Amino acid sequence: MTKKTVDYIQSIRAGLESLPAGPVNQALEYYEEYIADALEAGLSGDEIVAKLGSSEKIVAAIRAEVLINDTEKKPGPVRLMRASGNAFRQVADSAAKASLIMGAIIPIAVAILFYIVSVATFIGAIALTAILVYGMLQIPVIYMAEKFGTAGFALFISVLLVATGIGWWYLANSITRVTMKALRKLTQQTKELPIKNPALSTPNLVMPLRRFSFKKRLPVLLGIGLLGAVLLFSSGLPLRYFSIWNSMKPANLTRLQKEFEPQTVRNISVTTLNSRIVVQQGNTAGLAVSYEQPDWMSGAIEFKDDTLIFRERSNGRLPFMDFIAIHEGMTTVTIEIPEGYVFNNVSLESTGGHITTAIFAKEVRVHTFNGNIRFNSTNRMYTIKVSAPAEKIYVGGVPLEPGSIIDGRLKNRQAILESDNGTIEIDVK
Question: What pTM value is reported for the model?
Answer without folding.
Answer: 0.72
